[in-house]
Each structure stands twice: as C-alpha cells, then as structure tokens.
C-alpha cells in the first residue's frame, strides 16, 4: 500500500492556466494545435516525449530531434493578442539535453496579418516580439529580447534589440525564462524567477525606439563663402 501511495504522489499532473491567453502543456493532443513549417530551410523534426533524464515520470516536452538542422513549429493564438492597455508576460521552460555549440531555443510572437501562413513560417515571417536563449560558438551567448515596431510616420518596420542582454543558461537543467513587458514601457527578463535584466523600451533598446531630437544631415556641407575667422 505504501508503495502504491508513493507512485501515485509522484505521477505527473499537467498544470492548467485558465487565465492565460495561450498555454501549452504538450499533452497527447498537441499535434492538433501545432503545425511544423513546410519551408525547405526547416528540415528538423519534432516529437513530444520525456527528457533523457526524467525528474517526474510523465512530464513531457517538445523536443528538437535532429542535430545541425533548423527546426520551426507554430501555433495560432486565438483570438490574437492586442496590447492596448495591459501588461504582457511570456514564459516557458528550456532544457538543453545535449551540449549546444550553435543554436537557439527562442520563440516569436508573430504579427497577425491576412498574409500570415503558418505552414510557410520562416525566419523572415513578420513578428512583434522575439524572446529566448541563443548560443553560437564563443561569440554569442545571450537571451534575446527584440521588438519589431512600425514607425508611425515612415510606416517602415525596425527591429529594436535589448541592450547588454544577459547570458543564457547552457547546462542540462530545466530553466524557466520569463519576459514581462509593462504598459508603462518598462520590461524585465527573469531566469528561474531571478531578475537578470530590467530596462525601458524607450531607452534600453538598440536602435532606440525614440530617435534622438537631432541627427546629422549627411548632405549638409559648409557654404563656399563660409568665414572661419574667429574675429571679424
């Protein structure tokens, strides 16, 4: 009887988040909610299974199966998120089962447009927010936070990346990555509920969301009759 009670208590129970705009626990019906991109650049395959080192039996996750290949998978948020006067929280877990030399485990919140095709998702697909860890060689190890914003005057889109991004966790332990964007334009990034970066969308992004008041005019030049004498 005691052994049965222990087994029952250690059985994984999928969490719920009824107030979340989007939540995924990767249960047996996950393939009905997700679509692998058909773009030829993304040939990596996916599966849902327990990790190689399982802590809680039955606790499964989405796994990238193939090494040295691009993986892309998408799911639609219904209805689309409208950030008008509310805070936004993006949170998910990442576990590096094998040492990673070059790759990323970041996600993108795509821009909802009539032209959006989930099955044709690729790197150039328009997005609003990109967030998550990225590692490549000895030069790149960071947590991305990038916003893609449309200039209300020129109507052109520009990517604004968080300055001095924190380093990603590269061990084989599960880590919780969290992005909080506040309606007052402040943001914070957390790893395992520890704040690793705070800032403002207006001042801590590159290039700045708000351009400088004055900028150099590349076509400007000194008039031919300009006088350089200090005293006249």
Can you count the beta strands?
14
Low-confidence stretches: none
Q: Would you list the SSEs in sequence order as H and E?
A: HEEEEEEEEEEEEEE
Helix content: under 10%
Oligomer: single chain
What's this entry about, in short?
The protein is mainly beta. The chain is 3% helix and 32% strand.
Label this structure with key terms.
mainly beta, 14 strands, 232 residues, 1 helix, six-stranded antiparallel sheet
Could you characterize what this model shows?
This protein is mainly beta and 232 residues long. The chain has one helix and 14 strands. It has one helix at 2-9; strands at 35-36, 46-49, 61-64, 73-74, 88-94, 102-104, 107-110, 127-136, 140-150, 157-162, 175-181, 186-191, 194-200, 205-206. Strands 6, 7, 8, 9, 10 and 14 form a six-stranded antiparallel β-sheet that branches. The longest helix is centred in the first third of the chain and has 8 residues, at 2-9. The radius of gyration is 23 Å and the shape is elongated.
């Amino acid at each position: 009887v005691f052994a049965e009670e222990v087994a029952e208590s250690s059985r994984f129970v999928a969490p719920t988040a009824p107030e979340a705009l989007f939540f995924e626990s990767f249960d047996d019906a996950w393939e009905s909610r997700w679509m692998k991109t058909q773009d030829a650049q993304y040939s990596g395959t996916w599966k849902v299974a327990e990790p190689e080192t399982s802590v809680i039996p039955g606790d499964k996750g989405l796994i990238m199966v193939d090494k040295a290949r691009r993986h892309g998978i998408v799911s639609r948020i219904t209805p689309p998120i409208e950030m008008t006067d509310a805070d936004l929280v993006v949170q998910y877990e990442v576990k590096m089962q094998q040492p990673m030399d070059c790759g990323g485990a970041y996600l993108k919140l795509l821009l909802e447009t009539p032209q959006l095709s989930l099955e044709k998702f690729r790197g150039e697909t328009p997005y609003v927010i990109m967030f998550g860890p990225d590692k490549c060689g000895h030069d790149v190890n960071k947590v991305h936070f990038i916003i893609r914003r449309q200039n209300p005057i020129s109507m052109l889109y520009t990517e604004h990346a968080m300055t001095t991004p924190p380093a990603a966790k590269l061990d084989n332990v599960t880590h919780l990555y969290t992005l909080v964007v506040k309606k007052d334009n402040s943001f914070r990034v957390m790893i395992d509920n520890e704040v690793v970066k705070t800032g403002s969308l207006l001042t801590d992004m590159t290039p700045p969301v708000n351009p400088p008041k004055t900028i150099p005019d590349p076509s400007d030049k000194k008039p031919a009759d300009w006088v350089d004498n200090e005293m006249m």
